[in-house]
C-alpha cells in the first residue's frame, strides 16, 4: 500500500517556493499510481524540487515517484534502457554501468528525477548535443482517466513530440526509454582566460570540445573556462581544493550580501583561488558538481548568433547598476530539437544563466537582466524563474496553441494543473 503523509509542508531546494498540500502520496508501483489518479481530482507530481518556478506548488494532492525507480529493461543492441520515471539521475550509474551504458548528456546537478529533468527540458552543454528530453526514444504516460499510453515516434506520435517537455501537464510519465551511449570517460579541464580571448575564440572552441561552458563574473575580466572531452586515458579522480569552491562561494556570497560594495574586490580573488585543473573519470562522476550553496536562478536561451552580443549587454547592465551578486553567469551551448515547448525548438542556442544567493532578493539581479534576455527573443528554462505570460510565450513558441489543444484533449478537467500552470495554459494574459 502506498505511503501517505497528511497535511505536509513542501518547499523546493532553495526555499523560494513552498505550499501546504492536503496530502503527499508515495505509490509503490504503477498500479497504485493508477488508483491515485482515478480517485483524486487534482494532482501534482514532485521530483527533487530543483525547479525555481511554482511548478509543484499545490494545496491539493502531491505525489512523489521516489519508490517507482530503477531500470525495467535494456536493449543492448541499440544502447537503450527503459527507466522508471522516479529514478534520480545520481542513481543511474548503478543500473547502467553494469550494462555498459551512460546518458548521452547531463547537466551539473544530478539530484533530479528523470521525469523532472525530461519534463522541463533540462540540459548540459555542447554545440552538438541536445537537451536530455531530445534523447527520449519513447515514454509511457498515465492519463487523467487512468489509462496508460505508449508514446513514441511510431505510436501516439503527436503526444510523444509534444510530451517530452510538457511540465507534467499531459499526465504522469511512468517509464522513459532513453537513447544512451556506451559507457565513456570524460576529461574535465578548468582554466582561467580573459573575456576578450573567450569572445574571439568561443565559436571555434565549441567545435573542438564535446562540452564547453564559461563562468563569467560581472566585475572581473577573467572567467573560468570548463571543457569536457571523451578520453581513453587513465582515471585521475576529482579532488577537492581547500578551501572548497563551495565554501568560497558561500563565504563570498555572505560578504556580498552584508557589504555589497565589496563585490568587485571579492571577485578579484578569482585569480588567487582558481587554478588550472584536469580530472578524468566516468561521465556520471564528471558531469555533476557539488551544489551546497543554495541559490535561485533565471535562465534564457538566446539564438546562438546573438549570444555574445546579449552577454555584453547583460554584463554592462550589471556593472552599471552595481548589482550585488557574487555568483558568476553561466554561458553554454545547446543544439536545437523538434519538441514543441522545448526552449531549443528549431533553434541552436546559447544558454545564459543568472544566479542569486538564496538569502538575497533574486529580483535585485533578475529585474535588471530579464528585459535584456527578452529583447533577444530568449526563451526561458521552464524550471527557472521568469515573468513571461501566455501571450508573450505564444510569440516565442510556434506550436504553443497546438500544445494547449493537445493538453486540453488529454486532460479536459485540468487534473494535472496547479494554479501556476492554470495561469500559464488557461489564461490569455
Describe this structure in words.
With 429 residues, this protein is of the alpha+beta class. Helices cover 28% and strands 26% of the residues. The strands form five sheets. Strands 17-14-16-15-19-20-18-21 form an eight-stranded antiparallel β-sheet. Helix 10 runs antiparallel to helix 11. The longest helix has 14 residues. The mean pLDDT is 95.
SSE layout and pairing:
Elements lengths: L2 E4 L3 E2 L6 E2 L3 E4 L3 H10 L3 E4 L14 E4 L6 E5 L4 E5 L7 H5 L4 E2 L11 H6 L16 E7 L5 E5 L4 H7 L8 E8 L1 E2 L2 E10 H14 L2 E6 L5 E10 L13 H14 L4 H5 L2 H4 L3 E6 H4 L8 E9 L3 H14 L8 E6 L14 E9 L5 H13 L3 E2 L9 H7 L3 H11 L8 H8 L3
Parallel strand pairs: 4-6, 5-6
Antiparallel strand pairs: 1-4, 2-3, 7-8, 8-12, 9-13, 10-11, 10-12, 14-16, 14-17, 15-16, 15-19, 18-20, 18-21, 19-20
Helix pairs in contact: 10-11
Short description:
It comes from Acinetobacter gerneri DSM 14967 = CIP 107464 = MTCC 9824. It contains 14 helices and 21 strands. With 429 residues, it is an alpha+beta fold.
Strand order of the largest sheet: 17-14-16-15-19-20-18-21
Q: How much helix, percentage-wise, in residues?
A: 25-40%
What is the first-to-last residue Cα distance?
Answer: 42 Å
CATH class of the largest domain: Alpha Beta
- The Cα radius of gyration reads 21 Å
CATH A-level architecture of the largest domain: 3-Layer(aba) Sandwich
Mean pLDDT equals: 95
Low-confidence stretches: none
Strand content: 25-35%
The count of β-strands is 21
Which structural category fits the helices and strands? alpha+beta
The global form is globular
CATH level 4 superfamily of the largest domain: FAD-linked oxidases, C-terminal domain
Domain module tally: 2
Could you describe the largest sheet, including whether it forms a barrel? Answer: 8 strands, antiparallel
Amino acid at each position: 500500500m502506498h505511503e501517505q503523509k497528511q497535511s505536509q509542508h513542501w518547499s523546493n531546494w532553495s526555499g523560494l517556493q513552498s505550499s501546504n498540500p492536503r496530502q503527499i502520496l508515495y505509490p509503490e508501483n504503477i498500479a497504485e499510481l493508477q488508483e491515485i489518479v482515478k480517485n483524486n481530482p487534482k494532482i501534482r507530481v514532485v521530483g527533487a524540487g530543483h525547479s525555481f518556478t511554482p511548478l509543484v506548488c499545490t494545496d491539493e494532492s502531491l505525489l512523489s515517484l521516489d519508490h517507482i525507480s530503477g531500470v525495467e529493461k535494456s536493449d543492448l543492441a541499440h544502447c537503450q534502457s527503459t527507466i522508471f520515471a522516479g529514478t534520480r539521475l545520481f542513481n543511474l550509474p548503478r543500473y547502467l554501468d553494469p550494462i555498459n551504458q551512460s546518458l548521452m548528456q547531463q547537466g551539473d546537478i544530478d539530484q533530479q528525477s528523470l521525469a523532472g529533468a525530461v519534463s522541463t527540458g533540462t540540459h548540459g552543454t555542447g554545440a552538438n548535443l541536445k537537451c536530455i528530453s531530445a534523447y527520449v526514444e519513447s515514454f509511457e504516460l498515465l492519463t487523467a482517466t487512468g489509462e496508460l499510453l505508449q508514446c513514441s515516434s511510431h505510436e501516439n506520435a503527436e503526444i510523444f513530440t509534444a510530451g517530452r517537455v510538457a511540465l507534467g501537464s499531459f499526465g504522469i510519465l511512468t517509464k522513459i526509454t532513453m537513447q544512451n551511449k556506451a559507457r565513456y570517460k570524460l576529461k574535465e579541464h578548468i582554466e582561467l582566460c580573459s573575456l576578450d580571448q573567450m569572445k574571439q575564440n568561443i565559436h571555434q572552441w565549441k567545435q573542438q570540445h564535446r562540452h564547453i561552458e564559461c563562468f563569467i563574473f560581472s566585475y572581473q575580466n577573467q572567467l573560468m573556462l570548463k571543457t569536457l572531452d571523451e578520453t581513453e586515458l587513465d582515471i585521475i579522480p576529482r579532488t577537492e581544493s581547500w578551501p572548497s569552491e563551495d565554501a568560497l562561494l558561500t563565504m563570498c556570497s555572505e560578504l556580498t550580501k552584508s557589504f555589497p560594495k565589496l563585490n568587485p574586490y571579492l571577485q578579484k580573488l578569482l585569480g588567487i583561488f582558481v587554478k588550472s585543473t584536469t580530472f578524468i573519470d566516468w561521465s556520471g562522476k564528471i558531469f555533476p558538481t557539488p551544489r551546497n550553496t543554495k541559490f535561485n536562478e533565471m535562465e534564457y536561451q538566446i539564438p546562438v548568433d546573438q549570444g555574445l552580443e546579449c552577454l555584453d549587454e547583460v554584463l554592462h547592465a550589471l556593472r552599471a547598476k552595481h548589482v550585488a551578486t557574487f555568483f558568476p553567469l553561466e554561458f553554454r551551448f545547446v543544439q536545437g530539437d523538434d519538441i514543441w515547448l522545448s526552449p531549443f525548438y528549431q533553434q541552436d542556442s546559447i544558454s545564459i544563466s543568472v544566479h542569486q544567493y538564496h538569502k538575497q532578493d533574486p529580483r535585485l539581479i533578475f529585474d535588471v537582466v530579464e528585459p535584456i534576455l527578452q529583447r533577444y527573443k530568449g526563451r526561458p528554462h521552464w524550471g527557472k524563474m521568469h515573468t513571461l505570460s501566455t501571450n508573450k510565450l505564444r510569440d516565442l513558441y510556434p506550436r504553443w496553441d497546438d500544445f494547449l489543444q493537445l493538453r486540453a484533449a488529454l486532460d479536459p478537467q485540468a487534473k494535472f494543473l496547479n494554479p501556476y500552470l492554470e495561469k500559464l495554459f488557461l489564461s490569455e494574459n
